[in-house]
Amino acid sequence: MSDRASFLLAGARLVDPSSGTDVVADLAVVDGMLAEPSPDLRRLDGRGLVVAPGLCDLRASLAPDLDDPAAIADLARCAARGGYTSVCLASAPERSRDIPARMAGLHLRAMGAMTRDGAGEQLADLRALTDAGVVGVSDAATRSAGLTRAALLYLAPLGMPLVVRAEEPSLAGGALVRAGRVSTRLGLSGWPPSAEVVVVERDLALAAETGGWIHFSRLSTAGALDAIRRARARGVRVTCDVAASHLALWDGWVAGDRRFSWDAADGSPFTNALNPSLAYDAACRTDPPLPSLADARALLAGVSDGTVDAVVSDHAPQPPQRKLVEFAAASPGMVGLQTSLSLGLAAVEVGALELPDLVAALGVRPAALVGERRTLAIGSPADLVVFDPAARWVVERETLASVHANTPLLGRELPGVVRLTVADGRITHGDLADLS
Amino acid sequence: MTGDVGTWPHRHLLDVDSLSRAEIERLLDLAVELRAALTSAETAERLRSVVIGLAFYEASTRTRVSFEVAGRALGATVVDLDVVGSSVSKGESLLDTLRTLQRTGASLIVLRHPASGAPYLAARGVDAAIVNAGDGQHAHPTQALADALTLREAIGGPDGSLDGRKIAIVGDILHSRVARSNLHALLALGASVWLAGPPAYVRGFDAWPGVTVARLDEALDGADAVMTLRIQLERAAGGGVPSLAEYARVWGLTEERLALARPDAPVLHPGPTNEGVEISAELAASPRSLIGRQVENGVPVRMAVLSLLASAAHP
User: Fold this and answer.
1) Which of A241, A257, A314, A383 is catalytic?
2) pLDDT digits (tens, 9 = 90+) for B204-216
3) Which of B251, B259, B260, B262 is nearest to B228 (CA)?
4) CATH superfamily, region B141-294
5) Predicted ipTM?
6) Closest residue in B to A277 (Cα–Cα)
């Protein structure tokens, strides 16, 4: 018996941004391939459900305290539950070197390091990395303009992006939250938007000059998106992503305001007493820090208008000993693979985002950036997610598949339940019996 | 005679922001009563069965001693964890250490910590009532309450209120937990607060309702009282101000500069002072200086805080 799925999902909303499709129709899968509907297939009720190409995450990290097999299994569980069929690992290259490129049901991709040993001094053997199948080249260490230019020039003929975090250390150093009312109120050192914008502008100049492809990872400012719009207009090869959490969450969360960006008013954090059970929650510490309310909304608008190519989960599981500590001592990041689609759907529900734009930014467009095709076209391998956009679930330790539950969304009810994840023709999450 | 403190609605004192004007006034009234009865037998019985734990993660002399004296005056047993000098903090998380302190019987923990927000983590993680004795650059509520008492007695109206009073705070507001807590306290008591200092140190505070960020001469003009803050050399080096000499020349408080304020407007400083930098030695020693009074008021204010929280913890 084949482990490739076969079924007919009747009356679902098929959303495929690769072809501009958004229709209510039947979807058939035969032996793991998308096929013409036929009466012989097991018939499932798709009414009220959405089918979209499988989600592709450009950035997820492994749990730092688990050994590789356990950390990868942990990540794969979260990915399948969240509707993802491929994930690019953000972890250090030495950690991802020996990871099989394709494991059961999840396409794992790796980034190469731009500089030798990630030391930021000398270019790594970039041809060897690209030949080994990395999807991009990135660097954790501070990048000089000179090395960035050299890497862009060297990578240009290879069609390989230089994937960068844009942050000027002399502006960002020691900052814990976005500079603004919340940092002023809480006495936490503030991260000015210029920390990101000056590096984006610099790198865009380098990309323009070299013809190289630059991809900015986890942008968090309106200023950076503006710079990208201008650069694209003059033909610079630039792509970018933002973290899903940065669309919905904003710096007010650190002060205990737990409204989503589209619900929040830009009120004053000064006159209310801080809530002892919510203020300074290290679960809200991210890298870069949560954006201002205005910037969170600008990022959402950037997803809508296509300035932002991809929304990433920035999944970063952390053990309690790294989070149940002082805000300044906490490791940044939150688990995100299971909540990214739901946060996006929460925005869709209130009209802050269109569903096809969300699906494109979570799947089709990031997949295209790493050379993977995502489509619901007949004849293609079934690589898709089926979700109920109206169903609710509560984010809890028990409902999260990850070993670690570091997210400020704990206790929150979110829309969007993934019913089925099909990766490469195989069901990685969900049960056909539940859809009969 | 000291009255019954009754119940107090707050479990912790994390900042002044959680206190209403009436609660601040009640606390200051109690501080005045306790100050008058500092050595009475009744005062020494108030917290007779209470253990107060001091957890100071930052060097501090005046605040720690002030809490210690306040606790002892109320008859409490004061346990100093001596975190800085001992090995207890090495590799042990804040919550683990405080839980240990709690196991010694401490129902009130006085926490000083270099990280903003640490008392909030503590309040979530232990059962004891947390008294914030200064957290990073965020808050220093007992200092602000002592300052409020000092100001109330120096420039307050007949009812002790600061309604309509203009108070100038000068210096490094950005990094100052004292300034932030004072903003909450002084605004709650009806004062208007004017801030002046190097641009990087006052930036953003104009968004705080009731606060005006201004040039030094504007802030001092007609002020009923002036508070200046300690400038820390290591922070000056971070770019807020080129040098202490430059700071003193532009923002240092002198008798001459103070001529802009109301005649005899008092001067405050949370200490320790850098004389000749934030404030001239003459001014610090002049009759206008309330610096000594601020320290003296620290003890009864902390006694009032400990009494009220103990009444909340043991109703």
Assistant:
1) A314
2) 999 999 999 999 9
3) B251
4) Aspartate/ornithine carbamoyltransferase (3.40.50.1370)
5) 0.94
6) B124
